[in-house]
Amino acid sequence: MKILRDPARILLAPRGLLAGAVVLASAGGLAWVRLFPGQVSAASALLGHEEAALGKAGWLMAAMVQILIALCGILPASLGAMTAGLIYGTVAGFLICAPATLIGAVAAFLLSRSLFRGLVARHLQRRPRLLRLDEAVARDGWRIVCLLRISPVMPFAVTSYALGLTSLGLRAYLLGSLASLPALLLYVLMGDLARAGLTSVSVGKAAPLHWALLAAAIGATALLALRLGRILRGVLRVAPLAKGEMT
């Protein structure tokens, strides 16, 4: 077989299989959440029961679930955070979910970069305008990551993988991803209110933070559109390409 005679193919084959598995897991998670919300809720309730049954050791399971959610979106991030708040309370639940969410986000970013960035970079070398767009996004750094994390325009895991394809630095990515934590805190708080038997008034008690985050999401979406528009205009304002140069 040709692949056995070609060492490069032998090395690339596992990476290709892993890349395919990542894409399928992410796509499958998104499809499951969208198409079968009842099953998703049932799975979340089952996870919560298992975590509670484990007692203090359940926090490890809660952290692993939150990492998987951030990594491939197998469940909505809100369900994992609310479950943690329901079992462990606001402070402990947030201390479990926040680091786990960031770990999953960084893992997705690095996985995307290691598997796909080389291919994207080679493609960009043949597309100068796309290369300039990639450089402009990288220069924008943590600001554009922050807007993406606050705005609900893309699912969390998909955003992580998409940013991993760019030349954005890890430090800027991690700094911008901190903007996802206030919304995470709200979900943990709502879970804690339900645990305290305040389900009927939990919306009212969490309303100020909820409305503040909703306003921030709307504002971030508008700013994101403006900023991306400015980046695109800057790329298109560059002098016309030389004859024969690919766009």
What does this structure look like?
- The longest helix has 49 residues, at 77-125.
- Mean pLDDT is 74; it is low at 1-13 and 241-247.
- It is built from eleven helices and no strands.
- Helix 5 (77-125) packs antiparallel against helix 9.
- It has helices at residues 2-5, 7-35, 37-53, 58-72, 77-125, 128-140, 142-150, 156-164, 170-177, 181-195, 202-236.
- It has one domain (2-236).
- The two termini are 38 Å apart.
- It is mainly alpha-helical and 247 residues long.
Sheet with the most strands, sense and barrel status: none
Spatial separation of the terminal alpha carbons: 38 Å
Number of helices, counting only DSSP H or I runs of 4 residues or more: 11
What letter string, H or E per element, gives the SSE order? HHHHHHHHHHH
Total domain units: 1
Radius of gyration: 21 Å
Identify low-pLDDT runs.
Answer: 1-13, 241-247
Secondary-structure-derived class: mainly alpha
General form: flat
Task: Indicate the mean pLDDT.
Answer: 74
